[in-house]
Amino acid sequence: MNMSPKPSGTIPDRKIYERRESGVRSYARSMPRQFGRAQGVWMHDDQGGRYLDFLSGCSTLNYGHNHPLLKQALLDYIAADGITHGLDLHTDAKEDFLRAFEEVILTPRGLDYRMMFTGPTGTNAVEAAIKLARKITGREMVIAFTNGFHGMTLGALACTGNAAKRGGAGVPLSHVAHEPYYDYYGPEVDTAELLEQRLSDPSSGLDAPAAILVETVQGEGGLNAASPEWLRRIAEIAKAHGALLIIDDIQAGCGRTGGFFSFEGMGFTPDIITMAKSLSGMGLPFALTLFHPELDQWSPGEHNGTFRGNNHAFVTATAALRHFWSGDEFQRDVARRGALLETRLDRIAAEHGFETRGRGMMRGVNTGSGELASAVTAACFDAGLIIETSGAHDEVIKVLAPLIIDDATLATGLDILETKFRQAMAADYAVAAE
Ligand SMILES: *Cc1c(COP(=O)(O)O)cnc(C)c1O
């Protein structure tokens, strides 16, 4: 028996990952460092390296890493022996969260939703949403969109477009029709009208849908941002054809595109909304499915789970709602930063003849090439900037900086991106000229 006084882990053994961790790991491959600490917009590795985080856990850390206020709320709760796990029992933490969500989010927006705590990952919130839509309508088919991303469990995966992800299913993924998203065929073709035409044509072969499931901005699918008009039309089409409209706000919500919900001010109200990622505010697993009260046709335990309603996440989420969303200062800051980001990315894209994508603080540059995009993001990482790609061919360089980032630090990160982009393009041309 090893009686070494050194706690395990103090002797570096970085081969442990290759030896023991499944090959399914992915982000660790493009960022091969060991991280120990993170605060605000910065992550620190064990070699003294400091990284500016423009990925934010794929928009799970909208308020940055270990926000002092959220951290303190959680520390206080744990110190007072607050309930950590309570199945779906009523707890002080749950009451506080439900009340904060009602007071800060729903009531001021004139929204009326029931709140369902699913298992704590986004995909589980999507499973609950499509199950409920199928149960209510008695229909099987769900309409999802090209480049949509909704999670990895079978029901949500069936709604996801990406072939590599779908290939992992091992069984047929069925009962979903993938229709062209906004602008899929370019600005000349109105894909909402195409959908309407197919749904109205008794001979189109498209079954009547239980739901239309859509992201307002496709986070993993390349930052395609649908226009408010298109989304409003999709909402009308859903209603006209007896389908429920599900907005998957897991990545675009919680302020990423400006408002708490990504569809705010667009003139429609979804029947069902899914949320996760930044909902806890601190990166804790936490997911929520919202639906109009008359849709709450679940029988007790029908969609069950051991980890429904993470009490620690209730605590941090409540603190985040009350701190960031009680007034409109945070939203104004995010809008200003989003405009800064837009200006800078437009400039970077224009320099190389590319285009930008996205909305709010969820924007990127479409480089048209996965190779180029990954060359740029790899060079950025070496320069201390964590940034990832998105899209069918990983061709879009995606900026998901924490929403709390100050303007100067945002500019610092964008300076790195601008420089590395220029260098990658120059290197590319040098190779092409040889
Ligand atoms: C991340 C994501 C999901 C899946 O969430 P998980 O927590 O990874 O299961 C679903 N939909 C969208 C839009 C997402 O970005």
From TrEMBL:
One of its GO terms (biological process) is ectoine biosynthetic process. Pathway: Amine and polyamine biosynthesis; ectoine biosynthesis; L-ectoine from L-aspartate 4-semialdehyde: step 1/3. Keywords: Aminotransferase, Pyridoxal phosphate, Transferase. It is an enzyme of class 2 (transferase). GO terms for molecular function: diaminobutyrate-2-oxoglutarate transaminase activity; diaminobutyrate-pyruvate transaminase activity; pyridoxal phosphate binding. Its EC number is 2.6.1.76. InterPro entries: Aminotrans_3, Aminotrans_3_PPA_site, Dat, Ectoine_EctB, PyrdxlP-dep_Trfase, PyrdxlP-dep_Trfase_major, PyrdxlP-dep_Trfase_small. The keyword Transferase applies. Pfam families: Aminotran_3 (PF00202). Its cofactor is pyridoxal 5'-phosphate. Belongs to the class-III pyridoxal-phosphate-dependent aminotransferase family. PANTHER family: DIAMINOBUTYRATE--2-OXOGLUTARATE AMINOTRANSFERASE, DIAMINOBUTYRATE--2-OXOGLUTARATE TRANSAMINASE. This is Diaminobutyrate--2-oxoglutarate transaminase.
